[in-house]
Structures
1.
Amino acid sequence: MRVFLGFLVPVIMIVCAVPLAFKRVPPNEMYGFRVAKTFRSANVWFKGNQFAGWCLLAAGLVSLLVTLNEFRALSDVTRATEYFQLGALLVAAAVSAAYVKML
């Protein structure tokens, strides 16, 4: 089960990131990088979510590569990889929040 989840998390990150990165998600209450500033204007929404999408896509791809490399070497996914994935997600969110704050 850990192997399945180890690969599922980065794939979900990638799938969620693509529509954001390509500005396919209009302002809404359910999906996107939703902070007070992004709701103030459509322009900020699309710029902030596009940036967040690219950050999330990068985090997902790096996480997937780390997971693949570990699985290839150990035939398993360790807790360290799960922490790495979480860290990549948190970094993507923090960088996105800093960017939106500058808009």
2.
Amino acid sequence: MAYAGFSIILPLLRDIFQLTRARRFLEEEELEELEELTTKFGDNFPRYFPERGITRKMHSLIFDVPIFARKHGTVGYFSEQAGESLHKLGNAELITLTTKSRN
């Protein structure tokens, strides 16, 4: 049953993350799709993995993310990934500054 669960859950997560990582405002159809996908995830995870509990992050994904997306029209603009990507730019700049100061 676990394999069947993975084949259901993983595509749902992939599709959810594509919508929540998009750094743009979502179209109405995408907001509806996000609500549908998170509901399906919330329905199917306990069905296929009854020995596992719903974690706090899963709860947020199922219930809070769709509400947040509907209220703000996006999740991607506020996501952790957007901020984390700045580390790479900052580190590259520090390397450039350090290299220049040694010359």
